[in-house]
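agent: user wants the full assembly modeled, not chains individually. Plan: 1) parse entity lines 2) check alphabet per entity 3) run joint structure prediction 4) return tokens. Steps 1-2 passed, two entities, 982 residues total. Proceeding.
--- entities ---
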Amino acid sequence: MNYDSIMQVLGVCVVACPAALLAVFGVMSLIGRPLGERMMARFTQVSVVAGLLAALAILAMMLVLDTRHVPVEIGNWVVIPAQHFHFHLKFVFDRLSVPFAILSFVLCGTVGAFTSRYLHREPGYGRFFVFYAVFLLGMILSSLAGTIETLFLGWELVGLSSALLVAFFHDRPNPVRNGQRVWTVYRFADAAFLIAALTLHHLTGEGDFEGLMGRGPWPEGVASITGSRALFVGLLLLVAAAGKSALVPFSGWLPRAMEGPTPSSAVFYGSLSVHLGAFLLLRVSPVLEVSPLLSAAVVAIGLISALFGAVTARVQTDIKSALAFASLTQVGIIVAEIGCGLRYIALIHIIGHACLRTLQLLRAPTLLHDYGTLENAIGTQLSRAPTFWERVVPEQGRVWLYRFSMERGFLDAVLNEYIVRPFLALFRYSDRLERRWTDMLSGGQSRESDEVKPHTAALEEFV
Amino acid sequence: MPELHLPWLELSILIPLLGAVCVGMLRDRELARKLCVAICTLTLVFAAGEWIDFGTLHTFEAHDHWDLIRRIFHKDMFVVDELSAPLLPLAALLYLMTVLSTLRTKVNRFSFGWTLTSQGILLATLSCREPWGIVALLSLATIPPWTELRSRGRSTRVFVIHMGLFVGLLIVGQLLLDAGSAGTPLGIIAGALLTIAALLRSGIFPLHCWMTDLFEKATFGTALLFVAPMTGAYAVMRLVLPIAPDWALQSIAVVSLFTAVYAGGMALVQHEARRFYCYLFLSHSSLVLVGMELVTPIGVTGALLVWLSVGLSLAGFGLTLRCIESRIGRVSLDQYHGLYDHTPTLGALFLVTGLASIGFPGTVGFVGAELLIEGAVTVYPFVGMAVVIAATLNGIAILQAYFRVFTGARYVASLSLRVRTPERVAVLIFTALILGGGLFPQPRVTSRYHAAEALVRQRHSATQREKTAVASQTLNHDKRIVLSQPPAPSGSDPLNENIQTKSPRAIEWRGATSPAENQ
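--- prediction returned ---
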């Protein structure tokens, strides 16, 4: 067995481990035989450690053999030869994907171990780990994707698991509403991604990143499309990345996502999921280079998001929201770095920031407890000296800024007022018109559903 | 034409029809339910047998062994081809799952006899290739829901007006088509009437209100079984696609695309689960029509795949809602119900089937949706993006409904709401098909691609025939004009001159390859 074969086997292992984890959890839940807590924790451990070891082994071999690009071909998932249509399953191990995959395994492993204690004997323990397995698989597929279709596949899995985990405490309406909000933003981001992927496919004739971004190993590829086309595709990808990474104007979902359990907040919105948009921009960075206008747009969105996050984080009244906006600040800076072409710096920034933020979010509940203990011990609140900005900015400006930050930049209000509400009003009006039409045809009241009221005694009626 | 090894088609049509007679005579509703399950299972076995047998023949079409209809009428009335082969077991499966998941709480209001009758009619429709046979069967299929509406004492006016129009258009359209061949003015009118009929049956905007009305007034099972097999799309495929001119197909595609987006938006503002489901289904079935009208191998393959995946996934989705209804009555979407803790299996199926319908990765709908979008964007680069918008709206609507039905509150029930064994069997079958089909899509794609290729070929040859017929008619017509006119000045070509001045169609024809020019 030569080195190439070994790397192929290891590459398959990296993807197969989270896939097997999801298969076991999913099948057992569906057949109504959910695994016990200990068994789930053990399966998670084995899967994450095996995947991580395989990824580390590939990294070691790449360093020893001085290889910067290891493609792992799984083959064509779907192919229509006569139409040159193929859905190619291919994974790539390079300087971008390997660190991101290792980061995903490390952070997911940490959070998995933390959760097995944090959610001990909670009713949703099994549900959490099913969504966790979906997320892990999605992250690994996205990180290692060698084709834009494979990246989309992982991207969707991450989106679904994120939305469902925000709504994890599902016996209350607020987490559920927030989960719905996250899902809505993700769906529009996914639509932008899908259109961009199809357009790229048409322009270059293939979905393989090697074809799309040039044949050189990351980050040395040169995209083979014109500036105007790169601007169109790049803007769509920027919308997709902004939706996933909660950049302005989609930042409103980030604090809402903190309704989920702390471990999911840590791994999704503090560390991995929130960086997936930045990862996408890094992966397609050769496209950014083709169009200076596009690069400028990326820098602008990054800086605006960073500024917005920095201002808003200061007035948050709960620790998770404060950390969420602090994350946004860093992600904004990372995106600006990508727009400036500083790819390695952006990658290092992602890794460092993800690790720090995971630690902070996992520590958050006990930190509050420690603060409480400390303040109880000294008998008063901890004193705080006024900051530089408090001294420099006039009071009227501070009040305005405070309100702006409290309302989270009015972003949600603007989206609700100018997009969601007119959209729903239009369809409600159509619904009323349809009612009139069917009433006229029926010669009376046509909708029985108007009478439908939630009733809890329905079952007893039937018995 | 090659023969199947057994009379699968005739048996799968005959068994439910005979079963309907037997079930109709039973007074004991529970016994009727059990017999109905047995008959539907047997029908599924024969329909699946037909599919497998057909697969082993490696041919485009085949008819039954000992084909009785052919011997009597000397016509290949019931024929299976690549297009209909998987649709028959899918339809049979849909009926079996519906009957299987009918709980005791529903047996008194759900008519098993009419259900089996409609199954027989549906399987006959999907096996039939004779235009008049299809017209007759599509018309017959409107009777079972109408009877149910009447027996339930509901207003039938919306249904009767729409379905009366549908049957009338079908009959007049087919009569006109018989009177004048495709391409002639009479043929164009006939094609237009058949197209409107098929669009009406598919519930395309603004002819869709009968569908929401049916879901309002009929039992969920009957309404589901009337719309889920998408016989409107089948009518488009068999009756419209071979004769419609390109501009007509483009118009259908645009109207269907609009319906897909409109219905997706309407699904978001519904207050009740049945209406929500109806719009969701409408949005998806419109996407199937969009793909069909693209008339490219990729687009049609995508449409045929989406047809299967939507048929499977939205049927499962609808049955899940029906199971919920049988527990808590009609489901309001104005507030949260929080049923997940009582019925986690139904919650999981709701999510899996809903996500499969929007083409979520790893499910049966993914590849079909990709191909459909690819086909649409290739033919209509910007308008095709609307397919993505429709899928986005549907995705949002599905999760919104999931959250409303299964989460957001604590539901207090004095009795256990957990799934019963027959429901669990239905859930597992649906899940296995949806996930299995999603993970191993290649056989399905290959089969649908062959069917799509055949459809596109059929369409092109029909168009060619039509062009040739029009060209020869124009030529004869213009010759008559030339003979009746004074002689042209010497040096000019009277035939070409008159073609240019009198017949715009002939100009097109001349622009392509004119025999006169070639000479």
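agent: reporting back. Chain B touches chain A through 82 residues (CB under 8 Å). Residues 88 and 234 of chain B are 12 Å apart (CA to CA).
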